[in-house]
Amino acid sequence: MLLLLLLAGAGGFLWLRTSLPQTAGEVSLPGLQASVEIRRDRYGVPTIRAESEHDAYFALGFVHAQDRLFQMDFTRRLAAGRLSEVLGERALDTDRLMRVLGFDARAKADYEALPEPVRAALGAYAAGVNAFLATRRGAWPPEFLALRYRPEPWQPSDSLLWGWAMTLPLSSNWTDEALRAALARKLSPAALESLWPTQPPPVGSADLGTPASWQAAMGDLSPLPAMPGASNNWVLAGKHSASGEPLLANDPHLDLSLPGYWYLVRIETPTLQVAGASAPSVPFLILGHNAKVAWGFTTTMADNQDLFLEKPAAGAPGFYLTPDGPKPFVTRDEVIKVRGEPDQILTVRETRHGPIISDIGRAKAAIAEPDEMVALGWACLAPGAQTPEAFWAMNHASDAAAFRAALDRFDCPVQNIVYADQDHIGFMAAGRVPVRKRLDHFSQLPVEGWTGDNDWTGLLPRNELPQSVDPVDGLLATANNDVRPPGYAPHLAARFDSPYRVNRIRELLSDPGRLYTPDDMTAIQMDMLSPAARALLPKLLPMLEDPGANRSIATLAARNLLSSWDYRMAPDLAQPTIFSAWMAILSQKLFKDELGDLYSSWAWWNMATIDRLLFGPDPAGRQWCDDPVTPAVEGCEGVVRSSFAEAIDLLAKRFGDKPAEWRWGRTHIAPFGHMLFRYVPVLSDLTGRPMVTGGADDTLDRGSPDMRRAPEAFPHLHGAGFRGVYDLADLDAARFVIAGGQSGNPLSPNYGDLLPLWRDGGTLSIVGDDAGGRLILKPAGP
């Protein structure tokens, strides 16, 4: 019996391996115009060589489906609100939100409005995906077997759903408004203004981090990642480079999982040459370079959303109040199929401002009165989105000027885009930003929709968005910071990430006598120095002076370690563990009592906020040091000391009484769980690829630990999913790496094989070798 079980297990494993793609030989496929060569290197990175763009897009759809079919299907189901069909009722909340937002219908309408060349590219890509579905042999990828379903044919408009799946979590103003409104019900106006100023600070000194999550105010949305805003990009003029031509670097930060968001590829045709990060589901290169131009993205954190409070019209069911009298809701019924359960019927109501989100529980209790509804105004939901056309034009841009012109069609999400050709560098905050009649609370709270006082009057003209070409100092850099130039008047955003990372980029590129190289760019991307620790620790350490305090050996040793620290969040050092535990406990002591159940929604690694409140010029900030539960008035020194003592005690119980052994790498581990199997016992261990990593929330080598689990643990959940470095003197030598691997199949050798390279700061160039196989796609038929 044991032998039979072993044979059955071995047979099952061998059968599952038939789900891996064919990477060598020849395959005949209908729909091709000519033969296409696909060379894969040892990491599975393909170089696609085709005689036409049609065939190149076809081949890209084919290889995406070979390696990431489940991820592609999951993404389109997520955005279309169809997860419940395969996951059951656990996905109903997410499906309801997506149906209210209407992404599927919008994708179909936007596809029909696109220019013919863009629709042709989407059609060729879909044909390639479907050619794989029609000709594949063997087992389906493991996720389909586990969920017992088969993917449907790919429609050209399905590719546009990827954009919506990315745009929603990268557009966070509505969640900020809901959270701030919930905080307003708990805090005094003065306390709220102290914690979260209505207006952003002056240009260059924004100091509020981004909330880690907003579930307490908005409801559970577990299939969507709760991502803090973070990415880095910069471009350096040729006068500062060793090659004499511009250098560009980009590392967008997202949640870390397997498979990752990005898929490396090189495409060569007589009219199109691109290389870099593609997105499974989409035929266009998202991040990278073409034959003449390189580019990179970060999120602008633009305010392109508002929550409008709407009132029903008394005595007129189906109507709501407007400045011009009652108007009827625009309604539609959405049928949501639920696996193993009856169909769910959802009636969606829309107002002149946007869809009613409070009908599905979003934000109602947090911000609206019983007789009010909450509508989401979002510039992205306006018809006629041109972002796919923008990507097509960016991929085809012949120079920096043509690339800049392509950005005029970039709508959503709003992004900071740097770009360069051999002669010029540039930056633009591209996308749709609404213009408001007035700014109540600087657009940081929901507004009354029935008065019309806060309505939008249009969109900010593209030429009024922050932008720059060939600056005198030869450097353009963004890191989710305030990108408004001095004196900038239009309302762009109310919150930006702290300037820690962008200031560090500028610091590392500030040597006037140095000519920088691609190696320097890669080293900067892997920089682990914590600007937050460098700013805070010299102010905090003197506050630990207390001659009357009992000090354990561990406490003294930990303080001595911090006193000699170089502020690097390196995995072999103990200081990052000590400092992070201290800051997590200090944050709880300062804010948790006042914020209550909203603390976990507000708190992330907001060390710039701690710095401002404890050491800024406004003495009102020091009031956060007092514990309102106790009759005594606590001072900040006491809170700092008690937080440090608790951190040392906690770490000693977990790691022993020798602080030098409390290395960051013992607790700062990126789990890299599989997008589906991470939730399944045993399979989570078999498919996870945990990696010891360095970095922190504020370092350029982004290593954001989960604040919700600190100080007990510091799992690394957010970081650079892609890194790219480009020397415009030789774009063929561009350097790339992704967090994970090319394949989404856990049985593939390319499932997570790039992780050591990613962790250690290594890169690869896509040179078109065939160490991983050479596959020829041939037209089928006569």
Automatic annotation (TrEMBL):
It comes from the Bacteria. Binds 1 Ca(2+) ion per dimer. Keywords: Calcium, Hydrolase, Metal-binding, Zymogen. SUPFAM superfamilies: N-terminal nucleophile aminohydrolases (Ntn hydrolases). Its cofactor is Ca(2+). The active site is at 231 (nucleophile). The keyword Cell membrane does not apply. GO terms for molecular function: hydrolase activity, acting on carbon-nitrogen (but not peptide) bonds, in linear amides; metal ion binding. InterPro entries: Ntn_hydrolases_N (IPR029055), Pen/GL7ACA/AHL_acylase (IPR014395), Penicillin_amidase_A-knob (IPR043147), Penicillin_amidase_dom1 (IPR023343), Penicillin_amidase_N_B-knob (IPR043146), S45 (IPR002692). Ca(2+) binds at residues 177, 303, 306. One of its GO terms (biological process) is antibiotic biosynthetic process. Transmembrane segments: none annotated. Belongs to the peptidase S45 family. This is Penicillin amidase. It comes from Hypericibacter adhaerens.
